[in-house]
Amino acid sequence: MSAAASALGGVWTRASVKYLDQDFEVLRSRCLRSGQLFCDPAFPAAPESLGFNELGPNSPKTAGVQWIRPGELCQNPQFIVDGATRTDVCQGSLGDCWLMAAIASLTLDRDVLARVIYPEQSFTENYAGIFHFQLWQYGQWVDVVVDDRLPTINGELLFVHSEDGNEFWTALLEKAYAKVNSSYESLKGGSAIEGFEDFTGGISERYQLSNAPANLFKIMKQALRRGALLSTAIAVSTKAKETKEQLVKRHAYSITAAEEVQVGGRCVQLLRLRNPWGHKEWSGAWSDESREWSKVSPEVKDQLNYCADDGEFWMSYTDFKVEYSKVEICNLIPETPSNNSLGHWDLWQFEGIKMILSNTLLQ
Question: What keyword terms does UniProt attach to this protein (predicted)?
């Protein structure tokens, strides 16, 4: 390559812009000195932070909402319990399944997750009611500060929550994302690819399954191997809200694995998907306890963890193409760290023009 081109791969720094000029360290230190827990004036515990229409001040859906800190909801609140995992993400009453799918996929790579979440935060050491997260906004990383007052009704979190009742990283991350979008209601309806991009700064690609390339399964498997984030959804074709096999329409699912298993001398391509609700799973072939699994060795069953009743399920790629409508893939770029050596796209700048090439295409 000529001297006019410079490789930008591998350039990454934790430096980020302070969102709304709020400095986490300064604000926390101030709260610790004063003995007062942080109350965020930029995103107050008030009706306007919930929404403007369905979640507006006069909406019956917001009647009785109280903003409560985790320490008032349970005896031993934790930021993260035993590591952040995809099963921590359970959707609440907000229609932001697309965001939940993005967050669940985010947990598949600990380095990517650590770019967004500062895991050293806690409700004990230096606790001041303030937390922060990094999000990709307007072409740069921004550090977003939130207080830990969360919307509840009857002592239960109104929106996203963890399967573990005393874990709060998901609820606080959702609050930070609501803050940069002005309200929780602004998160209703969207595409998982939006969340992927805002959590990674990655490059997106989309495939319609009605005219998908013949090698799409291979593309998906390689993307997951690179550390890419994947989601899928079903378009609405009838009035039914779900298919007869219990797949929900107009609902984002995370794609968390792609594997091939040998069954009766033939290779079967399988995909693992997750419903952010934490329940309501596919009931067709290769679903939990389906007869197809009787033909697979116990070792493979254990490796695939096929029987967990947590909203995650396996299905054949053949059925996937019939049931679902699209696949969205967010590929990581050098600015996004990954613990996978194959997890980067190569980014070059040549005479002011950025070109992005998958490193798998260059090999």
Answer: Hydrolase, Protease, Thiol protease
252 and 318 share one domain: yes
Q: Are residues 267 and 321 in the same domain?
A: yes
DSSP-derived 3-state class of residue 68:
strand
Whether 88 maps to a domain, the answer reads yes
Domain membership flag for residue 71: yes
The pair of three-digit structure tokens given for residue 130, joined into one six-digit string: 């303030």
Phi/psi of residue 257, nearest 5 degrees:
-165, 155
Per the CB < 8 A criterion, the answer to whether 163 and 29 are in contact is: no
Phi, psi (rounded to 5 degrees) for 23? -100, 115
Q: How far apart are CA 184 and CA 169, in angstroms?
A: 16
Same domain, 320 and 218: yes
Closest CA to 251 of 100, 121, 144: 100
- In the predicted model, is pLDDT for residue 357 greater than 70? no
Q: How many residues does the chain have?
A: 363
Q: What is the DSSP letter of 229?
A: E
Tens of pLDDT, residues 211-260: 999 999 999 999 999 888 999 988 766 556 667 776 877 788 889 999 99
Placement of tokens 């040998």 in the chain: 262
The residues that are catalytic are: 97, 251, 275
3-state secondary structure of 256: strand
